[in-house]
């Protein structure tokens, strides 16, 4: 079997102008970045505002395992399958981060014959959006430190600086650093920190902003520090808003590329779901819904993270209402949750499947709490047996879930027709009565506890003294009505990555809380989660190269 990058490199792409025509977008609406990728102009979005919205389908998954689930692959394959059936469909996906690309995860453009292309461009620099976000983030940091150096008119307390620098790379040594070393002219010595770019508040802001006016409003509201008398200091106070917006002028525009079967795809924004809100941009999703009858989008990691944040943050803020949710699982991953070692997953094991399927069961229950119809799909592997597939099918159908087998990795759109028909049946015959799982007027602690108990299955929540104090401060600042963004391991429903399946009798431990005043949510950091990942012992970067002819190899 060919590798993903080999399949992508052999693909015959159509000019992006031809792809755009499929959804009634003219060349005048495009800002071309070469032949196969483009940004959509602000005029295009304005023109689309009066168009009717298509149906919105969210693709999510069980908790990720080393066995693989294939959520993005399934999203792409489903869109291609809709095309096979003659339906008008479009994708709205996130952009990959360089960190995982060179770390452990590899690329994020789908896989097999369900990919978006150009794959190498997407996984590397693409249209420069992440570089713009990194630059805007670090410009604000530079202006902050310069303000202190130049007299500190705002009375910023260097011990209460909360703005961190960022880099779109896994680099653990930058988590905790000291800046300002040297002589007096080199700035004030203080402790500083880095986060990965996808965890920057500016990434979240870009993905939640409606337009340039809203982007600037949100940028100006970013809290960077507190003064000696305890008052918040914002980017607006530092007069940094306009310059940051200038760096983000093009980054705010959604990008269009295509799948291997020439289905249009808007790929824009890329916050991680374990440390950020995990969804592509509101602008891209809303534009996609105007362009086609069916918009297929995905949210990062498992449904306890990405889907929860899509439903409780993105949909709440953007006024979106999903019409159906596709929940991706694999036989292999369910057996892994049942205690089977990765090396033994290819062997039929109904006992382990019955034990591990409780993870899928909890995600089904969680999604149904949002009153949206659910379709479960098994991402097929050649080692799956009929008995295992039949068991999962019966399990799902007995819980009022539609079920479909997906073979999109191997067969592209044709392998997703069963899934596409199941989704179309739900869209035609079931009603979504979507509502978030908590209300705006609940306290921040009650919101956190609701997610912990209802979604994770925890008995309760414990807080560090610092987290408790910060929750009180955020509430006193008038931001207690914000939704909460839980930073939690993706590998378990709990905050302990080792607890597989459906953990019971545990508490969620919140060790840190901070407000993203521009993004307008409160982040609760749980367990040992880090906002700056590190590289593994053997990074994926070791296997990536470029030939003398300029062909990239080993990317995925």
Question: Secondary structure elements and their pairing?
Answer:
Blueprint: H1 4-10, H2 16-21, E1 30-32, E2 38-40, H3 42-48, E3 55-61, H4 71-84, E4 89-93, H5 98-102, E5 110-111, E6 114-117, H6 119-123, H7 129-149, E7 156-161, E8 165-167, E9 177-179, E10 190-192, E11 194-196, H8 201-208, H9 212-221, E12 223-227, E13 232-234, H10 241-247, E14 255-259, E15 264-267, H11 282-291, E16 294-298, H12 303-318, E17 324-329, H13 331-337, H14 350-356, H15 358-368, E18 374-379, H16 386-397, E19 402-406, H17 408-411, H18 417-429, H19 444-456, E20 460-463, H20 465-476, E21 484-487, E22 507-516, E23 521-526, E24 545-546, E25 552-553
Parallel strand pairs: 3-16, 3-17, 4-15, 4-16, 8-11, 17-18, 18-19, 20-22, 21-23
Antiparallel strand pairs: 1-2, 2-14, 5-6, 6-14, 7-12, 9-10, 12-13, 14-15, 22-23, 24-25
Helix pairs in contact: 4-18, 7-8, 7-10, 9-10, 13-14
Please describe what this structure looks like.
The protein is of the alpha/beta class and 556 residues long. Helices cover 35% and strands 20% of the residues. It contains 20 helices and 25 strands. Helix 7 (129-149) packs across helix 8 (201-208), helix 7 packs antiparallel against helix 10 (241-247) and helix 9 packs across helix 10. The mean pLDDT is 95.
Descriptive terms for the model:
single chain, 556 residues, alpha/beta, twelve-stranded mixed beta sheet, globular
């Amino acid at each position: 079997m060919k590798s993903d990058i080999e399949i992508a490199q052999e693909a015959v792409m159509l000019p992006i102008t031809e792809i755009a025509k499929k959804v009634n977008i003219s060349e005048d609406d495009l800002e071309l970045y070469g032949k196969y990728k483009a940004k959509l102009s602000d005029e295009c979005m304005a023109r689309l505002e009066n168009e009717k919205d298509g149906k919105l389908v969210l693709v999510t998954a069980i908790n990720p395992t080393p066995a693989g689930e294939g959520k993005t692959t399934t999203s792409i394959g489903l869109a291609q399958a809709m095309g096979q059936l003659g339906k008008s469909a479009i994708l709205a996906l996130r952009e990959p981060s360089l960190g995982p690309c060179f770390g452990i995860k590899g690329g994020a453009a789908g896989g097999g014959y369900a990919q978006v292309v150009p794959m190498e461009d997407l996984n590397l620099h693409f249209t420069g959006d992440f570089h713009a976000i990194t630059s805007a983030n670090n410009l604000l940091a530079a202006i902050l430190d310069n303000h202190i150096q130049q007299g500190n008119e705002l009375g910023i307390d260097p011990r209460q600086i909360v703005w961190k620098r960022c880099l779109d790379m896994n680099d653990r040594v930058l988590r905790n650093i000291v800046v300002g070393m040297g002589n007096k002219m080199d700035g004030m010595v203080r402790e500083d920190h880095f986060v990965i770019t996808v965890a920057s508040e500016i990434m979240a802001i870009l993905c939640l902003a409606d337009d340039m006016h809203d982007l600037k409003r949100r940028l100006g509201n970013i809290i960077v520090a507190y003064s000696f008398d305890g008052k918040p200091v914002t980017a607006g106070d530092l007069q940094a808003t306009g310059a940051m917006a200038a760096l983000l002028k093009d980054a705010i525009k959604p990008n269009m590329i295509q799948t291997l079967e020439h289905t249009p795809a808007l790929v824009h924004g890329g916050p991680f779901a374990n440390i950020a809100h995990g969804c592509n941009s509101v602008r891209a999703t809303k534009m996609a819904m105007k362009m086609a009858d069916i918009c297929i989008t995905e949210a990062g990691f498992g449904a306890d993270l990405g889907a929860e944040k899509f439903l409780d943050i993105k949909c709440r803020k953007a006024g979106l209402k999903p019409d159906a949710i596709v929940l991706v699982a694999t036989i292999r991953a369910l057996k892994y949750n049942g205690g089977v070692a990765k090396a033994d997953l290819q062997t039929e094991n109904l006992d382990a499947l019955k034990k591990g399927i409780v993870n899928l069961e909890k995600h089904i229950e969680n999604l149904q709490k949002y009153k949206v119809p659910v379709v479960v799909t098994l991402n097929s592997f050649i080692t799956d047996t009929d008995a295992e597939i039949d068991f999962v099918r019966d399990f799902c159908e007995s819980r009022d879930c539609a079920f479909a087998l997906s073979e999109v990795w191997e067969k592209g759109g044709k392998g997703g027709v069963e899934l596409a028909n199941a989704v179309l049946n739900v869209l035609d015959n079931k009603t979504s009565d979507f509502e978030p799982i908590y209300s705006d007027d609940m306290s921040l602690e009650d919101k956190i506890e609701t997610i912990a108990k209802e979604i994770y299955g925890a008995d309760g929540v414990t807080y560090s003294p610092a987290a408790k104090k910060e929750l009180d401060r955020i509430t006193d600042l008038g931001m207690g009505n914000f939704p909460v963004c839980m930073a939690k391991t993706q590998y378990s429903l709990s905050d302990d990555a080792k607890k597989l399946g459906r953990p019971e009798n545990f508490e969620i431990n919140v060790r840190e809380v901070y407000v993203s005043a521009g993004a307008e949510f409160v982040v609760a950091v749980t367990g040992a989660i880090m906002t700056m990942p590190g590289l593994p012992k053997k990074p994926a970067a070791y296997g990536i190269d470029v030939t003398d002819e300029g062909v990239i190899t080993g990317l995925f």
